[in-house]
Amino acid sequence: MKALILFLISLWTGNSFAQTSVEKNEGGTTIVKLYLDDYVCSESQWVYLHGYKDWVSGNECTIFDSVFVAQGEHVVQLQTYIPEAQAVNILFEKQGPLNMQLAIEPNSSLGITVCEEDGDVSIFKRAGQGGSLNNRLHDFLKERSEYLRRIGTLHQEKKAEEAQRLERNTFEKRCTMLLNADVAEEAYEMAVCLKIDFRSYSEEVADILEQIALKFPTSGLIQEYMHKKKGLPATAEARKCSLRIQELRKKRKDILFYPQKIGDELILSFPDAMGNELTTDHRAEDFVLIDFWASWCVPCRKEMPDIKKVQEQYGKRLLVYAISLDTDRKAWQAAIGKDGTGSFVHVIGTYPNGQPTQNMKRMRVHSIPKNLLLDKNQRIIAKDLHGDELMQLLDSLMNQ
Description:
Elements: E1 30-36, E2 45-52, E3 61-69, E4 75-80, E5 86-92, E6 99-104, E7 109-114, E8 121-123, E9 129-130, H1 132-156, H2 160-180, H3 184-197, H4 202-215, H5 220-225, H6 236-253, E10 269-271, E11 277-279, E12 287-293, H7 298-314, E13 318-324, H8 329-339, E14 345-348, H9 358-363, E15 370-374, E16 380-383, H10 388-398
Parallel strand pairs: 1-7, 6-8, 12-13, 13-14
Antiparallel strand pairs: 1-4, 2-3, 2-5, 5-6, 7-9, 10-11, 12-15, 15-16
């Protein structure tokens, strides 16, 4: 069945292409143009446009189109014929998103940038050319994300009355938007969010969904979601396509991890707050302490005074390379100021959309606080040093 990936909404970056009037495509097909940055087109690869034939069944997986992209080729064009608006997915074989979801309409064109910062998942990223349906969903989901953030903060602060008021006002606004939706795909995405976000209004939600089912009686997507129609069994061709997509995803996830055993060489490169790549090699210091932390990690923050103490004691002989796992960059910067760790080299292991960078994934950091100590040759000589252990080991090493 068509996957509900709205839980993964986390990307709200724009792109550099100005909005132009290219909605209508005279060729009778729907065209998707992708503008690739240097990272995404750094290798030759196949790009797939896939999804489900919603007008047939939510079980009918298909590959609408595929294109081979040569190394250094920055513009890709995919095309397909669809009888009705629907969500589709872009999958890059090697570099680029594993799942870039777009909303497309029949007989139209859409142009969108694809960059390293999109990470593995990008949901309804704003298009710079055409894509009015896609962009409406982008704006809707951006607003939804802000609502979830605000309601969560109010509950944490125990402001129950204010939270209840916000919830009710937002619910009424969402119901109006849903009832006014003219495109089945748009109504479907809104209906899914309404049901997920407002469980305490289950009876009212059920009534609204009944109205939507009546409004779009020919939409197989909505009728199946509302349990008004049973999805057809997947055909042999659909099963074959589904297996192909699964194989491509699995191949992409088999990444090469960084070695992290004692004695292994480890050279890391992560961006600072300005986007400049800072590496751990070619340093004047005798030792590099790589510290993984986050502003929300209480144990990590408690260790900062100890790390500051050893850095102050050993001065230019020790570099602290602090890698943040924060998804909120303002919180990251605020924590640096509050902890007084401006003397550290601060970098971040997430993209602006909150997803981990490729280098961060290669580190396999499952819990924090975590640290690694490197010698002059970038060899790992110790791991997970905390409190007095860190000071004692450095004392021993410095006196050798």
